[in-house]
Design brief:
By secondary structure, this protein is of the alpha/beta class. The protein has 2 domains: about 160 residues, Quinone Oxidoreductase, Chain A, domain 1 (Alpha-Beta Complex), CATH 3.90.180; about 140 residues, NAD(P)-binding Rossmann-like Domain (Rossmann fold). It has 11 helices and 15 strands. Helix 4 packs across helix 10. The chain starts with a strand and ends with a strand.
Length: about 325
């Protein structure tokens, strides 16, 4: 099969290779998927750069956890009826070396979810990490109907979906964004108001938009950097659900202040979500896809041969939406 891989850590243009690898064979409990697309996420880029030093202990790594394609074979214990299914896959390169940046991937059958006909393979490559993370952040702490939720970085990969999950489930959403196009994207996704997180003291603007009432929950993209402002606009007993802290990697917490606010801090990563949360997210994603309730921002679609460029785009940032690789049929 055609594939991309790395066997050392470093810059994308220096360590990513393209070529042929042996076709995988599905083991018991697995399915073999012929991939049409592969999604590149920040976690994939960080792994290639060396965030997990032991990752290469078993040999080369085919990157990327998300993708979409068609099941072409099944392993022992999996019904042959699944052959021919259009599926979206997630968690392909977690706790294992061979991900979705290839024409074929063999993986746990639970990680290959039927892709509704209403969704393209390009959309399917965006569903794993971004949409499941957003689902967990919004719903892990109970129903949101009637609540006010702040989504920081609302035009980003996760934020865009968090706005949709929350607003369509009865919450009032206030988002943050700094660029005019991103502001429009947040409003189009369902935010009632958008404030500029580049402005000092932006929490005051959040409170102004909420009528002076602190928000019930925060879905946060930059925990360490945003925490001082978040604490100024979240209510006592509120929840901060966060999935990233890139700017301040090891934040210092004002423990006493947060304790006396009786805050819940929930840290979210798809890989470690309880299995029932993964299954619920997958079910809700497919239900909403069939009903046309989710909109998607796909920023770049590149052939597999341009995977290094895709990695660089993620590292440079500055855009909203997913980066998708295609396998050329």
């Amino acid at each position: 099969m055609k594939a991309a891989w790395f066997n050392k850590f470093g810059p994308a243009t220096e360590v990513l290779e393209l070529g042929e690898l042996p076709d995988p064979v599905p083991a018991a409990g697995e399915v073999l998927v012929r991939l049409h697309t592969s999604g590149i996420n920040p976690s994939d880029v960080k792994k290639r750069a060396g965030a997990f030093p032991n990752l290469l202990d078993g040999g080369l790594v085919v990157p990327n956890s998300d993708g979409a394609g068609v099941i072409v074979a099944v392993g022992e214990g999996i019904s042959a009826d699944r052959v021919g299914e259009r599926v979206w896959v997630y968690q392909a390169q977690y706790g294992r070396r061979l991900g979705t940046a290839a024409e074929l991937v063999a993986l746990d059958a639970r990680r290959a979810v039927v892709l509704p006909t209403e969704a393209s393979f390009e959309v399917g490559a965006c569903l794993g990490i971004p949409v499941m993370t957003a689902h967990r952040c919004v719903f892990a702490d109970g129903p949101v109907s009637g609540q006010t939720i702040l989504v920081t970085g609302g035009a980003g990969r996760v934020g865009h979906y968090a706005i949709q999950w929350a607003s369509q489930s009865g919450a009032r959403v206030i988002a943050t964004a700094s660029k005019p196009d991103d502001v429009e994207a947040c409003l189009a996704a369902g935010a009632s108001a958008v404030v500029n997180h580049r402005q000092s003291g932006w929490s005051k603007e959040v409170l102004r938009e909420s009528g002076g009432k602190p928000v019930d929950r925060v879905i946060d993209v930059e925990f360490g950097a945003n925490l001082p402002e978040v604490l100024d606009c979240v209510r006592i007993g509120g929840v901060i659900a966060t999935y990233s802290s890139t700017q301040v990697r090891e934040p210092a917490l004002p423990f006493l202040r947060m304790m006396f606010m009786d805050l819940t801090v929930r840290m979210v990563i798809v890989y470690a979500m309880p299995e029932e949360a993964k299954q619920k997210a997958a079910e809700d994603i497919n239900e909403w896809l069939r009903a046309g309730r989710l909109t998607h921002r796909i920023a770049h679609v590149l052939p597999l041969e341009r995977i290094a460029e895709g990695n660089q785009l993620i590292e440079q940032g500055g855009f909203g939406g997913c980066v998708v690789l295609t396998m050329g049929g």
